[in-house]
Amino acid sequence: MILTVTLNTALDVTYGVPELVPHASHRVSDMSERPGGKGLNVARVLSALGHETAVTGFAGGSTGAVLRELLAGLPSRDANTKAENGATPAAAPITDALVTVAGNTRRTIAVVDRATGDTTQLNEPGPLVNADEWTALLGRYEELLTGADAVALCGSLPPGIHVGAYAELVRLARTAGVPVLLDTSGEPLRRGIAARPDLIKPNADELARLTGSREPLRATRDARRRGAHGVVASLGPDGMLAVTPDGVWQASPPAKVLGNPTGAGDSAVAGLLSGLVEGLSWPDRLRRAVALSTATVLSPTAGDFDRAAYEELLPRVGIEEHSTAA
Amino acid sequence: MILTVTLNTALDVTYGVPELVPHASHRVSDMSERPGGKGLNVARVLSALGHETAVTGFAGGSTGAVLRELLAGLPSRDANTKAENGATPAAAPITDALVTVAGNTRRTIAVVDRATGDTTQLNEPGPLVNADEWTALLGRYEELLTGADAVALCGSLPPGIHVGAYAELVRLARTAGVPVLLDTSGEPLRRGIAARPDLIKPNADELARLTGSREPLRATRDARRRGAHGVVASLGPDGMLAVTPDGVWQASPPAKVLGNPTGAGDSAVAGLLSGLVEGLSWPDRLRRAVALSTATVLSPTAGDFDRAAYEELLPRVGIEEHSTAA
Asked: Are the C-beta atoms of B261 and B236 separated by less than 8 Å?
């Protein structure tokens, strides 16, 4: 089982409007809701790849109840139908191991202008999490680690959670001997790295904020010196740069693609983590991560990946090994 | 008891953002939720004026549950505290007589740009209401009419409800001998008027759509000829024009005010309806409606009215009787 932790889960709401005009009134032409927050997105992709997953983090209030109801409906019937046809691996179950909190889970609202495809995002703050709820999460997390092959710690911190929370979770994973990937930003990332996670997956902006450098190789090496055993920097259309104890690789998508990058980073995390658990080589993990994240950009639904595109892209991802030592 | 009917109730959500930038990502800096839909707003104002009210219409799903929970908390403790001090009339109870439906009550999202105060509105479509649910509403409505001194039929129709729904509700009220005010727009207003409601309260745009005329006196008279016994046209900063069997009056606020007009029309409906039930003269009803709606524009919270402003404005509303016959 792969465990994902999402401390600041969200109900992701998408509103389509014919055209977004500031200070006007809009009738929403179409809407959808789905369980969100980075770790939940990672779990959905892992499930589609056939990996059993458990998700923990916090959920509460009426929005939390809707989120858990939608989560219970995953993996979708569509995914299973495809699996029965033998065309794709069966989607594996996602176990809801969320900790109930008194506060109301946040919503994120993506307003999509159907004329241009542009998205305007409104993110509610998360619920205030108290000390007892954090203690409950720690207990649940330690239990889950005993059955986990790997763990991903994902996204922002809700109000009330101390800035060293991810560092604490990294240490507990290392004590339990479970490989841990940290995907967050800002001060929680800085502190988390000092606790020596196996892998971090910053994008170029997060790396620059962490290290002060916009030169990918220099910044990635700096991030390793700060404590991360391996660093996979996601460089958008330029693919990924992996600096690891085993070597340095650059992975590039076969072509630039146009689409919605929402969730591409989460798909990359799922690719890296599933590859780790399956014992793939670094080049194969990177091929999977780049193909999944490109196929996510290409998907008509934000955050989903286009499976046909993924399978077509996978053998065409370019891998270049750097001769320089990590 | 005054009854208000809101077929398309809503959970009104307000998001404050530092500045709304299309196609950017925003952290919501403050948020609030309250029960909405025009009839619920009318009931809140009636309650603050000391009138017992019952609200019916449809509510369902997780959003409907949140709406009803918030409704159960009305009138607010603040209102009661003031009443104990003797400064203002005690807020009267609001009875939840909503009919439960399978669909999910809609949300409306008001995104307030805290830099400019401008509001961008996103309105979800309502839940699809089926024939059994409509029949249940009719039964509940007829029961409630037996104890009602007046009824207000307010707002848009949710999907699934026939366009003549308000006409049907107007006829039932007339059969029961309960004075009925209709506040809707478009085809439901046109059909509702033909069923001969006691009063309609269109704004200038609604009147123009109904009659084709932008000349208030002509359009208001035309609306009466179509079936409404009385017409009170709300003309924004120009106040209100009442064309009734008893005469024609123009009511004007003492000064132009700046603020948020959200809910001003609902406050006017509450003013007219409470004045009717209390047996006030037309000039006094209009004074109350204009003072309440101006005090709503002045309130810092959209849809609430500023009681001190209301009491100060009330004696200063200008009333002019037209010598022409209605």
From this structure: yes
> Please, are residues B141 and B56 in contact by the beta-carbon 8 Å criterion?
yes
Determine which of B108, B119, B122, B157 to mutate to test the interface with A (most A C-beta atoms within 10 Å): B122
DSSP designation for A146: T
Q: Which of A28, A113, A123 sits opposite B123 (nearest CB)?
A: A28
Q: How far apart are CA A277 and CA A308, in angstroms?
A: 23
**Residue B28 with chain A: CB contacts under 8 Å:** 122-125
| Encoded amino acid at B241, one letter | L
Domain A2-322: CATH class, spelled out: alpha beta
Q: What is the DSSP letter of A203?
A: B
> Is residue B53 scored above 60 in pLDDT?
yes
Q: Which of A20, A63, A122 sits opposite B15 (nearest CB)?
A: A122
Choose among A318, A309, A276, A80: nearest CA to A181: A276
Distances (CA, A) of A146 to A40, A175, A243, A278, B224: 20, 11, 29, 18, 76
Distance from CA of B120 to the nearest CA of A (A): 4
Residue A81: band (very low, low, confident or very high) from pLDDT cuts 50, 70, 90: very low
Buried b (16+ CB within 10 A) or exposed e, A176-191: eebbbbbbbbeebbbb
Q: Express each pLDDT in A208-264 by its tens digit.
A: 999 999 999 999 999 999 999 999 999 988 899 999 999 999 999 998 888 878 889
Express each pLDDT in B104-132 by its tens digit. Answer: 999 999 999 988 888 899 999 899 999 99
A26, A109, A125: residue with CB nearest B121: A26
Does A266 participate in catalysis according to the annotation? yes
Structure token pair of residue B51? 């009138």
Q: Tell me which chain A residue has its CA closest to the CA of residue B22.
A: A120
Domain B2-6+36-102+126-322: which topology? UDP-N-acetylmuramoyl-L-alanine:D-glutamate ligase (3.40.1190)
A91-114 confidence digits (pLDDT tens)? 899 999 999 999 999 999 999 999
Please say whether the beta carbons of A228 and A199 come within 8 A. Answer: yes
Least CB–CB distance from A25: residue in B20, B121, B125: B121
Interatomic CA distance for residues A216 and A202, integer angstroms: 11
Catalytic residue among B266, B284, B304, B306: B266
Question: Please, which residues have CB within 8 angstroms of residue B191's CB and are 6 or more apart in sequence?
Answer: B163, B164, B166, B167
- Which residues of chain B have a CB within 8 Å of the CB of A126? none
Distance to chain A for B15, nearest Cα, Å:
8
Ramachandran class of A280: left when φ > 0, alpha when ψ lies in -120 to 50, beta otherwise: beta
Give A-chain residues touching B124 at CB under 8 angstroms: 15, 28, 31
Q: Which residues of A touch B123 (CB under 8 A)?
A: 25-28
A20 contacts in chain B (CB < 8 Å): 22, 120
| Residue closest to A153 by CA, chosen among A171, A135, A136 | A171
Cβ count near B293 (within 10 Å):
29
Asked if A65's CB is within 8 angstroms of B15's CB, the reply is no
Percent of the residues in chain B that have a pLDDT greater than 70, as a whole number:
95
